[in-house]
Design goal:
Number of strands: 33
Structural class: mainly beta
Radius of gyration: 31 Å
Number of helices: 5
Shape: elongated
Helix content: under 10%
Mean pLDDT: 91
Largest sheet: 8 strands, mixed
Low-confidence stretches: 1-25, 129-141
Strand content: 35-45%
Amino acid sequence: MNFIKTLSLLLIISISISCNTKTDPIPTPTIASMGDLDIPNNFDWSSGINGELIVKLDNPLNVSTEREYIQLIDEVGNVLDHQLVYNNEAIFDIELPSDGDYFLFFPVTQDQLLIESVGEINMLLGPTVDYIYPQFKSTDVVVCTSCDSPLVNGGAELPYRASGFGIYNEDDIPGWETTATDNKIELWTNGFLGVPAQEGRQFYELNANQVAALYQELCLEPGATIYWSVWHRGRSGVDVAEVKIGGSIETAEAQATMSDGNSEWGYYSGSYNVPTDQETTYFVFESISAAGGNQSVGNLLDNFEISCDFDGDGVIDRYDDFPEDPETAFTSYFPSSGKQVVAFEDLWPSYGDFDFNDLVMSNQAVITKDENSNLLQATFKVSIDAIGASIDNGIAMMLYKENKTVFGDNIISEVSGDATIDPDNQNGIILTDDVFATTNDRYQNNGQGPMGTPDTLYFTVTFNSNAEDFVPELYLFRTNDRGHEVHRSGFPQTATMNSSLFNTEDDAGDFKSSTGLPWGMEIITEVAYKNPIEKVDILEAYPQFELWATSEGTQNTTWYLSPVEDKVVDISVLLD
């Protein structure tokens, strides 16, 4: 009897657990065809986290942020992009898959923040306490020094003061010495006489009791190139001081003259090549003049930093993607991670069969920039994944500003590889005039025609010096009718576009129908996209698509990861 009771209890528990298990059933479309959808006209038909991301730093510890970099990283720490911080703010233009985790990372404090959407986002740096020492610094690269830490107390945080100011003997200030005959160095705390520290809590006044120099003796590797920076401010008005570097105080040569008023901190930086026979290097800050003429007043200093800069381009090695190349400094990507998939119906301005496999392409670009983040080159990899069309089409690309508007000038210097400059469109590129002639064996990869490994086009764009960050638009055109182009909505028409085709047949302008349906879609993804089989409506192939579209992309953001497998073509098996 006890055994039966026990068995019954276990059965009840099992049923209870089964009934309460949450599942995510695949939704059943409520309509039969995409053509029956009615979508608000402002929907961009793009899957991914796309747009401008404004990062505002919440910095309760006043750590060093100005002119530092925030990085965009993936879940394993690969750096995808980086932007300089100005006024506690950095701005990214991102194109990220919804099927991955991506973060903002601030190397100075090691803080990171998950990216969930575009727009404005606040990033908290460090714990919310009044004070912490030492200030966070990135010191992971020390190959240009002959000691573990070449710089001591660059932010004036030692000795700690509760408030106000203090005049100390140089023996009590870690790292620093002075040429003043009384051996005095002056420290101020944040907010004293209304002056904020540039970073942290404390900063130096160069003129303590007399006009003098503040200096530090450093062990830098002979023959190395270092990058230095410091912040300077006047006290009562315009104060002037010099940055000097050399093998001794007496032989140190001027690197910069700092002249600033008392309303804001000024930033100064530069590179220095350590002579091969110089075992000791002196960094000297020498007072030149101060407003008011009082010898004990003037020249505030804060946040002195030294970092390795092997190639001397002004980008420190820990941020330089090409630390041995003075011409190239940074790498970024389009999209920011993963790949861009664009899928077209090619019968515009008439509706097609909504399988969006007439032309499917995957696009990736690696972009290089110089030390000032000016564009140098972009190397594109465009895979022609599916060709379900019966019409001969060509493929072209336009480069637009990040807000999808036209550049005023030509930014392309040359194009090399499997593409050519479009002679009829400024900042245009022709990948092929006839996709069937370009691909091998006339594969279609649409489930009804020949299957084959997708052909891939590789080409490099070299930019003019006036180039700005861009967004590429892949589009198709009729091989025998150049003006008959098919674009994704939201982009300008090209100079070759036959505008008389707009607002004819099913088109209501901007490559959308009166019910907001497109002829081209974009998917940003980390995985291979499986396009629908020929004549299979995308709603039938992807049951989650309908809610994604009707919610204007706010729900089912990874709809493309849940196909009905027997209604799609999996090209990933061709790539193995």
